[in-house]
Amino acid sequence: MENINHATLLSLKNLTSPWATSNATSLSWKSTSDGPLPIPAIPTALLVEMCFMFSLMFTQSALLHPKFQDSSTARLTRLSMGPLLVAWWLCYPFRLPILPFEDRSVFPGYLAATMIFKSIESTFSGGPYHMRTLKEVEGVPVWEKDPVESPPKEGDPNLVDLLLWTVVLFTSQRGFRWSWGPAAKGNEMSFLKALQEMVRLQLVFLPCLAFVLHSQDLASYTIDPRKALLSLGVPSSSLEMLSAIPVLSTYLLYPTLKKTSLPLKVTELINPASFPPQFGSLFELSSLSHFWGKSWHQKLRRPFLFCGGKPAMSLARSWVALQISRRPAVLWASSPSVDFFMNTQCTPYSGSRILILENYLKAYPPAFCSFSSNHLV
């Protein structure tokens, strides 16, 4: 980074690591005058293992099909795959080749965390998943939250349908197509309106990009100059293009493929109405919780539910069940018949029994006793 007088304040190129330079299998952090060092390739064995792990995760997703809802073997198979997948993805970022400090990325860690969350969900999910279809309600495409009822049983799907079902489930992020997703509106923007929105956003990003490129030292960013923009937290236009261009292409592909002989379930996958914007209009949101839980943060809702919400609820139920199971002993110990029994039965061990009983009753706070008498009777 340079100031206005072009005096270097901080340069990542000057950072060196004695450990990295002494390790023969790693890459030195220090750059040479001949140019950037070549990026080491991922080992072939690691790529083969990754393909195998992805195949296991696809198998986990396929076993969530309604076809296997009554199969205990399918559930045990999903449970047995979970520990292996979680352990492998935890170690994945640390098995990659060491890169120079300025060339490192958060993508391996993000990929590992995403796959861990998805594997945990597929491992501990209780019931099968069902696909939802867009419905027209007053001319507006919506995904309705289906009532809790047994869906109609379908015939056994063939291999192609099961593979398509698995791919759609594995790549789902917000769950709009699935029974566990929230009730939401589909995409109502036309092609011209979506293109106009993208152009408007780019016009906002361009002044920020021009300022950052003018004020940063681009010589230290030999791989991608946009790293200077990202380092300041300003959105990069390339990130939006990765999702904007495929969505815009669906406006042209969907009418064309509808005229072909492709199955309806295939053509509906590229329906533009199935891709609502991540950040919709703020005036359409009813509350902050609606924005947090059912808008963009819907991507994080399932990981939070399976890795935080459900374990917490299980612990709470276990604690309540334990307290309820001890309640009869507390009520019996506090009854007048126990006092009569203790006073009349004079044995050599009566004193020790009374002491044990008193210590046992002291373990229960008065708040729990009042809760038991008011709510559990």
From TrEMBL:
Gene Ontology BP annotations: lipid metabolic process
GO cellular component, one term: membrane
Main location: membrane
Keyword Transmembrane helix in annotation: yes
Record-annotated Wax synthase domain positions: 276-318
Presence of keyword Transmembrane helix: yes
Domain of life: Eukaryota
The protein's annotated pathway: Secondary metabolite biosynthesis
Pfam families hit by this protein: MBOAT_2 (PF13813)
Subcellular localization: Membrane
InterPro entries, alphabetized: Wax_synthase, Wax_synthase_dom
Membrane topology value: Multi-pass membrane protein
Family: Belongs to the wax synthase family.
Name this polypeptide is given: Wax synthase domain-containing protein
Organism: Puccinia striiformis
